[in-house]
Amino acid sequence: MKKLCCFVLAAAAFACQTSPAAPASPDEADAPVRVKDLGKLQGWRENSLVGWGIVTGLAGTGDSPSNRATRQALSNVLAQFNLTVPPEQVQSRNVAVVTIAASLPAFAREGDNLDVTVNSAGDARSLVGGTLMLTPLKAANGRVYALAQGPLAVGGYRYDANGNVIQKNHPTVGSIPGGAVVEVGVKSEPLAPGQPLMFVLEEGDYTTASRVASAINAQLGAGTAHAKDASGIEVAVPESQREQLVSYVARIENVLVHPDRRAKVVINERTGTVVAGGDVTISRVAISHGDLKISITSDTMVSQPAVFARTSDGVRTAVVTNSRVDVDEREGNGFLRSGTTVADLVQSLARLKTQTRDIISILRAVKAAGALHAELVVQ
């Protein structure tokens, strides 16, 4: 029996019980998802910007006078204002050299604001109270696309005196919300002349790509979309729609589809969390863990409605799988739980007050035995 299960198990979780559910197909268990939530058009991307600047106004927590990069940077800045001060004569603990990072969206226009992150590049103790001086932000091609400036927001502090240090969070990293202004916009052309659109899935999957193509064809006409591979769906654009590309793409983005998901079990040993998603099933297996003994069996039966088959067109033969989970513990009560999913197994173990660490060990052993039909991700 297959069904979709998704649960989170913490160290003190599972005080409630669930009743067995009827088998459900992925289409019945999952709500449809918009195509725009599964990926993006090829060519849509953010561009990384980086800069090198100076933060001023620090209360003696900036770079030390022995930092040559800081002295040289401050000397260069003063030279732009007709002040000639050799780097050797620059002595200030209120200045720090920093690196600035930002992301330029695909459809950024001149005048848009960007959030920037400021990181200390020297030996400054804290950037609290500092202000970033005007700094150009460049892309990988060396061209300036934005200018950053403004007071820093630092979610921490660091104070020291006579060898005593009090610090909270990370005071050498700050941010400036909306601190950069775009000077050069980005022109994104999602559709080249005479070329079709290419929709790219965030997670490549042949089944999902095929379903997306079928859903688009059902909405816009047969032959419109074609899955090229596990992550790319090629969508043809009629000549009549090329002048109205925005509305055409909007129709594609709002097409509903049932994506397929790989069966995974994610285990976080640090927090004792187990998350299972997809059709995560367990084959017949017997487990012995300390005083705990678990047995999982499956019985397959064929339902043959011969009487109704001669009178009804919609009646057909069906294969039904009945599964049983037997859990026994010394000085404990055994119980039955239908279904062979990870959720049923973990809930059964939790009812016996099995420790989360032991449950994680059992799941890893079941995977090693080849009985867990899912990808096991250990974080």
Topology:
Elements lengths: L6 E3 L16 H4 L3 E2 L4 E3 L5 E10 L11 H12 L16 E9 L8 E8 L10 E8 L5 E8 L5 E5 L2 E5 L4 E10 L14 E5 L4 H15 L4 E3 L4 E4 L9 H9 L2 E2 L6 E5 L4 E5 L7 E5 L2 E12 L2 H4 L8 E12 L5 E4 L3 H10 L4 H13 L6 E4 L1
Parallel strand pairs: 16-22
Antiparallel strand pairs: 1-17, 2-15, 3-12, 4-5, 4-7, 5-6, 6-11, 7-8, 8-11, 9-10, 12-14, 13-14, 16-17, 18-19, 19-20, 20-21
Give an overview in words.
The protein is α+β, with helices and mostly antiparallel strands and 379 residues long. The chain folds into three domains: 7-30 and 261-378, no CATH class; 33-43 and 189-257; 47-182, no CATH class. The protein contains seven helices and 22 strands. The strands form six sheets. A six-stranded antiparallel beta barrel has the order 4-5-6-11-8-7. Strands 1-17-16-22 form a four-stranded mixed sheet, with helices on one face. Strands 3-12-14-13 form a four-stranded antiparallel sheet, covered by helices on one side. A hairpin with an 8-residue loop joins strand 5 (96-104) and strand 6. It is flat. 27% of the residues are buried. Residues 1-28 and 331-339 have low confidence and may be disordered.
Number of strands: 22
Compute the number of structural domains: 3
Query: Mind describing the biggest β-sheet?
Result: 6 strands, antiparallel, barrel
Give the SSE string. Answer: EHEEEHEEEEEEEEHEEHEEEEEHEEHHE
**Radius of gyration, whole Å:** 31 Å
Low-confidence parts: 1-28, 331-339
Helix content: 10-25%
Shape: flat
Q: How are the strands of the largest sheet arranged?
A: 4-5-6-11-8-7
User: How confident is the prediction overall: mean pLDDT?
Assistant: 78
Structural class: alpha+beta
The end-to-end distance, rounded to whole angstroms, is 29 Å
